[in-house]
Design a protein that fits this description.
Oligomer: heterodimer
CATH class of chain B: Alpha Beta
Largest sheet of chain A: 5 strands, parallel
Number of helices of chain A: 9
CATH topology of the largest domain in chain A: Rossmann fold
CATH architecture of chain B: Alpha-Beta Barrel
Number of domains of chain B: 1
CATH superfamily of the largest domain in chain A: Cobalamin-binding domain
Strand content of chain B: 5-15%
Number of domains of chain A: 2
């Protein structure tokens, strides 16, 4: 049996060689679904460590981008073993970079961290019109909407999206978090979001607090 | 003192004095104004970006209205016509939002590090160019290249002309970013033009020795067609140029993804060389540093006093003054959020606070804290009120 602590440690240290070697050995050992879930959990624990190291300043944005890539690679490797396994999710997040903005790095970092924290993420991509957020929230009965943007114009699109969610009668049933360069307390208040963050790891904590 | 020649002399002297941490009679107002200039003029972004006459008209009207002392850029930063002549640009122009977006690019593969090390220009011509401009590799390539060369020549004429016009008409010295010899550490070339944000983030973890090797080999290079920093240094005379503000300019963009440790490896050795040059040759370096920089202050503190101005984009300027103010002249501070959401009086009050607290003993240039680009970055009446106040406020 693969040592899950070592997987978590290697993931936290962003040591791709060790992560992939451990997972290759694990997949070759014909594991059962419970064992596969424990390895996924180990990868998620590693991502939590990465988030903590980011908050301490040890890791920075480039490391989080790499962590997202590594996590995706790890999950791809374990996926065949997980097939059919219904791991329970803690909540549903509809996520996207808002209309007019095509920056997706911050969104993708947040996505990889929040998925690791057990959320089911519906990623709408970039330059997302307000109605796409509205339609997806309605369709999946989301708990949270996450809107990202780097450009200052994103704040206008965030407000427009939240207004549309309200007009559709969905606003009271969801929490809204905004993230990216132009957001702060003033912007959060102005656009009508519930919370903001310029730090993906903190953003995840806020979302976790909402679904407790 | 209102004729352009006198204004020019005054502005150059104020720049030098502020950079040298001397107390000045007033604070310089540096325009961190970008596509908002086009928005304010009433032109569509797509019109002005492709028509030098319209861009020039927008800039002249802007200066006559707001009367800045210096500009970072005169619509030069994004030479869309040159790129378009080669059949492609990485830019997406959105007139409705007055937005110019750029995709994260990647025109190199991990194995290309060795090619760059062996012969950088060969890599550019044989790999980078065909990947970025596939149409220029077709049967029409000769005509496209010729057209691109002509566009490039016209662009060069525009750059020279607009800088000169601002000197002659308004007494505004050449632009800080695009009218001054401008350099970046090679890491920035990888980040912005060749490998992209995602690719470089992966490479720093997967093949750090390769990234470091090309950074060591190419060190600091010109933004655009100018000489490398090494060649610029070799041709430099001692003393600062009294026809412009800074003697050289650097832009920091890719540092926004680097931890302090990574900055020390991929950035600092080459930046230190530039710092040392400014002291040795008595030059002034102006840096535009995007994002929040406080984790890097230990490096910035190494700047030789009186030789380095840093425009900090999203930093707490009052904290920056405490930590860096002894050595670095700071530039920036005026929040775009306030320029858009605040009242006229709130804006003036904040501008006064910035000047009172940051400029009392010299070492500060007033500017906006972000690149003002979109309609919701700024309200015209607030900008006008702030600029009128800053221009008339004596220290």
């Amino acid at each position: 049996m693969t040592d899950v602590k070592l997987v978590a440690q290697a993931m936290g240290e962003l040591d791709e060689d060790r992560v992939m070697a451990a997972l290759t050995e694990f997949v070759a050992s014909s594991p059962n679904e419970a064992e596969a879930l424990s390895v996924v959990n180990a990868c998620q624990q590693g991502m939590i460590v990465i988030g903590e190291l980011f908050e301490k300043g040890e890791y920075f944005v480039g490391d989080l981008i790499y962590a997202g890539e590594l996590m995706a690679k790890a999950i791809d490797m374990i996926k065949p073993v997980l097939k059919g396994t219904g791991s329970s999710k803690v909540g549903k997040i509809v996520l996207g970079t808002v209309q007019g903005d095509i920056h997706d790095i911050g969104k993708n970092i947040f996505k990889s961290l929040v998925e690791s924290a057990g959320f089911e993420v519906y990623d709408l991509g970039t330059d997302t019109p307000p109605e796409r957020f509205v339609d997806k929230v309605r369709e999946v009965k989301a708990d949270i909407v996450g809107m990202s943007g780097v450009l200052n114009l994103a704040t206008t699109a965030m407000k427009e999206t939240i207004d549309r969610l309200a007009a559709a009668g969905l606003r009271d049933d969801i929490k809204v978090i905004i993230g990216g360069n132009p957001v702060n307390g003033e912007v959060c208040k102005h656009v009508g979001a519930d919370a903001f963050s310029t730090n993906a790891a903190q953003g995840v904590k806020i979302c976790q607090g909402w679904v407790k | 003192m209102s004729d352009p020649a006198s204004l020019m002399r005054e502005r150059v002297q104020l720049y030098k004095d502020a950079a040298r941490h001397k107390k000045t009679s007033r604070v310089l107002n540096v325009a961190n104004m970008w596509n908002w200039i086009v928005y304010d003029s009433g032109y569509k972004l797509s019109e002005a970006l492709f028509d030098y006459g319209k861009m020039e008209d927008a800039l002249f009207k802007f200066q006559e209205k707001y009367q800045f002392d210096y500009y970072n850029d005169y619509g030069i930063r994004n030479p869309l016509r040159v790129q378009s002549a080669l059949g492609h640009t990485d830019y997406i122009v959105n007139d409705e939002a007055n937005a110019l977006n750029i995709q994260d690019i990647n025109y190199m593969e991990p194995e290309d590090y060795d090619d760059i090390l062996e012969n950088y220009f060969k890599f550019l011509w044989t790999k980078y160019m065909p990947r970025k401009y596939p149409q220029a590799n077709s049967s029409e390539s000769k005509a496209m290249m010729l057209n691109a060369c002509q566009e490039f020549a016209q662009f060069g004429q525009y750059v020279g002309n607009i800088n000169q016009q601002f000197v002659v008409k308004y007494g505004v010295p050449p632009a800080l970013g695009f009218g001054t010899p401008a350099f970046v550490v090679f890491y920035e070339i990888l980040f912005n033009f060749i490998r992209g944000i995602r690719g470089l983030s992966i490479d720093i973890r997967q093949r750090p020795e390769k990234v470091k090797a090309v950074c060591d080999a190419l060190r600091t290079v010109s933004i655009g067609p100018g000489p490398t920093f090494a060649a610029f240094k070799a041709a430099s005379q001692h003393g600062t140029d009294m026809n412009r503000g800074p003697d050289l300019f650097m832009v920091f963009l890719g540092h926004t993804i680097l931890s302090k440790k990574q900055f020390e490896v991929y950035y600092w050795p080459y930046l230190k060389e530039v710092f040392d040059f400014t002291e040795q040759y008595d030059k002034i370096l102006h840096i535009f540093a995007e994002g929040e920089n406080s984790r890097l202050y230990d490096f910035y503190k190494e700047a030789p006093k009186g030789h380095v101005v840093i425009h900090l984009e999203m930093d707490d300027m009052f904290r920056a003054k405490k930590e860096l103010g002894d050595t670095v002249c700071l530039c920036g501070g005026m929040p775009v959020d306030l320029l858009y959401h605040g009242t006229r009086q709130e804006n003036i009050d904040y501008a006064k606070r910035l000047i009172d607290e940051l400029a009392a003993d010299g070492g500060f240039m007033f500017s906006q804290n972000k690149m003002v680009s979109y309609p919701n970055d700024c309200k015209a009446e607030n900008l006008k009120a702030v600029n009128d106040f800053v221009r008339g406020y004596t220290l």
